[in-house]
Write a structure and sequence with these properties.
The protein has eleven helices and nine strands. The chain is globular, with a radius of gyration of 19 Å. The chain has two domains: 212 residues, Spore Coat Polysaccharide Biosynthesis Protein SpsA, Chain A (Alpha-Beta Complex); 55 residues, no CATH class. The chain starts with 19 loop residues before the first helix and ends with a helix. Strands 1, 2, 3, 4, 5, 6, 7, 8 and 9 form a nine-stranded mixed sheet that branches. The chain has 290 residues and is α/β, with parallel strands linked by helices.
Length: 290
Amino acid sequence: MHSVNPEIGCANPAYPDQPESSRNLPCATEALRVSIVITNYNYGRYVEQAIRSALDQTHGDVEVIVVDDGSTDNSLQIIRRYPVQLVEQTNQGLAAARNNGAALASGDYLLFLDADDILTVTYVSRCLSALQSASANVAYAYTQMQIFGAENALYASRSFEPRALLEGNYIHASALMRKTVFIRVGGYDMTWRHALEDYELWVRMLANGYAGTFIREPLLRYRKHGTSRNSLNEREFNHLKWRIRGRHPKLYLTSCWKNPRKLMKLMMWVVIEKWSRRKTLRVTTWFQLS
């Protein structure tokens, strides 16, 4: 479908310009640093469990960065009890919080964790092993997800398959990804302040030739509760899906080609997204010059 970008070797993914001979050398996963970025907004009752799950990883080299997105509860008091790097910011939204945390990360790999979720202790080591044994274009590893709290179930995830991803998201937000790839595709879209930020990122990675690898064990625990993020009705969900399709029409042309109605809708969203992004760029430029 698309040519892949060569994400080469494991000698040090943070330095893609090193000689190819050194980039292709085998390496132990223990030598790789992982940066876990926890994003928090008024989850003081949960954030301690998220932090402890990050600090308790069996992998040897993990740094934990907590970005607090303007909490007004007791979150900061709890976070300061732990040996983590704390970033305090005014409320800017999830995409900005994750990008700001990633900008401070010193690791070769990134993992984003919501403050109400929990990692099992082998999460990082299992994902790293999967990535190290995967093909060169595989940019991230994700696992099955156990839903707990108000609901007890397994998330409907599956092995990576591009066509299935284009139909809907089955990859959770806490996939372990190569930092070089995250930077190369532009990180989270700061203009995307609605929901499905993760899905937009996975589709954008696919458009750039990257894939994921799936671990079947439920190594992430996703807490379902009354204030869980991204509660969308079906109409809102479909609206955002078509926005994503409008940004990457080449990926969707095959599935829409034999359906004139879908094709017209895709073209409409291409126009809407191009106009919207140009308008955002003009406003951003105006503020920068003011």
